[in-house]
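Notes to self, Protease HtpX homolog:
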Amino acid sequence: MASTRFQPDRGLTSRMVLVMFFLGLLYVVAIGAVIAAGVAIAWVIIIAGGFLIAQWFFSDKIALAAMRARVVSPEEAPDLHAIVDRLCALADMPKPRVAVADMALPNAFATGRNQKNSVLCVTTGLLRRLDQNELEGVLAHELSHIAHRDVAVMTIASFLGVLAGLIARFGMYSGIGRSRDNNAALVFAVVWLSSIVVYVISFLLTRALSRYRELAADRAAAHLTGQPSALASALTRISDDMQQIPQQDLRRAQPAQAFFFAPAAVGKSLGRLFSTHPSTEVRLAQLAKISAELGKPMV
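result:
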């Protein structure tokens, strides 16, 4: 992690390294096996590589466009900028661009490949619902994602899952069930099934990392602001209000689901392994523990 005053998180750092190592190893083995089988996937890799480069350098712009958000100046949002300025000074980190998305969904996210090329986005629904202390806690949470660089790692890890899906589709449409050569059909079947396995493992690894990084961001924000109760209040308020959000706003927010402060969904999750965020109860319990450690009982 770059030098900031956010509390370092060795658990997050080690998990990011392990996830990237295992994903890289997994893909080297998988692609090597596919090439050895005689399947020409060069064009798939080249095209996918192009997408990765575009996503790496333009992830912030892509995210803002998906949310129909726009960057705002200090003159347009003086109160919001004032909080971000204060938190960045407290954390001793560069100030990201600040954006606002006009939607009822109360949420926030941060994206960008590094501290100098990042953006912090909040929705108008969040600004209407939270008081200053609660908003400060949420923004500190998002800034910690930038400081920890887990946004960049998540971007790469998520892309690798997309690559596996592309290889699986390529294998399926290239020859499975079409070739009269039983050996060729077997090769394509193996490639296709291997890609599916790689995709599933990538999916589970990135979801596990996503859940841990949210807990790490909660911890970092609580320690930086010294107000875990304010962050807990914001989390509770946002989770409770999610039931009132129009379905069109929830659908519009789905592409950024893994990057939000709180999941943009209602109802029960399909399961812990498939969730992008830890449960609200787990997050509140952690914040209550931090509050007790700081000698500031939850209110």
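- The chain has one domain: 10-293.
- The chain has ten helices and four strands.
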